Amino acid sequence: MKKWMALAFAAMLAGTWLGPSAHAAPADAKEAGAPEQRRAAYGQMALLTGLDWEQVAALDQYERTLRKARPKTRPKLGSWAGLYVSTEQWSGMTNPDSDDRDPASIRFFGGIGRDGDGDGKADRSSDIDLLYAQASAVARFGSSPDDFSIGVWEFYHNQRAVQRINQFSLLYRTFGRLDLDGSAFPVPVGTDYSYRSTWGTARGWGGHRTHEGTDIFAGYGLPVRSTCFGVIENMGWNAYGGWRIGIRDADNRYHYYAHLSGFDKSLRSGMTVEPGRTIGWVGSSGYGKPGTSGKFPPHLHYGIYRDRGMIEWAFDPYPLLRQWEKAEYKAKKAKSRR
């Protein structure tokens, strides 16, 4: 009863009632998982578990990104919640009823299934039950940054998951919202630069390899900008990429900017950035020991990678670059008409 009263109070605070029927799929599937709906649900789970809403959001977002990267092995269970868990994990590995929805017997058999929406059932197809199952499992260890990290580790046994979820939490805490889909072209549009698709072309320095990115050729010193809302994950020298910076966005993509002539001195690893923020300048560094420069014409190497949970894989950024460039030109044109 105490838990259900807390849930009702949380829903009223969020301005949206998410009672027993909350997990039913909405009439318009396009609205499933709208940011305002998810934000309300994360507020509920924060009140129920003692975690911050940003931490709950980060847990769910990590699962959503894994589903996007591996849709065949991690199908959607509810309408929008990210968590994928097998029937055996949900009900308990030794539970004779793999479809058990009774919270008491699920607990008895060590399953993670929980009743989050107060309908008396731990339903694996309920968004709220899925959220509560994951958040309560992590919250057993506490809500302080260190305790939260321990809880995430115990849930995934994967240090990459701990890092990603903490990064997502920081982004939500910094910007105060879930919608972090803004973008920017990596150099100022309208300036003197050129690029074409160079994905998969051969590279020879350091051994045979293929090009995992797009080269944007421009003069020394042209500003290089963040393409996304993100957290600086790596910053410094790389023998191949020279002075490089790597930024992780909330969609679990890693944006890689290489061959820079230098960084914005105010930036540090672990800081957040927004689209269009200057992070460095075009250069020709790389292919050698720290400080090596001039072995090729000045350009920005831009790459993008998606985290699949245990590994990351690169994909061709050229279509996104064209899309972002076109959007910025369109916005500039519309602004000039005002």
UniProtKB/TrEMBL annotation:
One Pfam family here: Peptidase_M23
UniProtKB keywords: Signal
Gene Ontology terms for molecular function: metalloendopeptidase activity
InterPro entries hit by this protein: Cell_wall_metabolism_enzyme (IPR050570), Dup_hybrid_motif (IPR011055), M23ase_b-sheet_dom (IPR016047)
Keyword match Signal: yes
Signal peptide limits: 1-24
Listed CDD domains: M23_peptidase
Region (Disordered): 91-121
All copies of domain M23ase beta-sheet core, residue ranges: 210-308
SUPFAM superfamilies tied to this protein: Duplicated hybrid motif
Keyword Signal applies: yes
Protein name: M23 family metallopeptidase
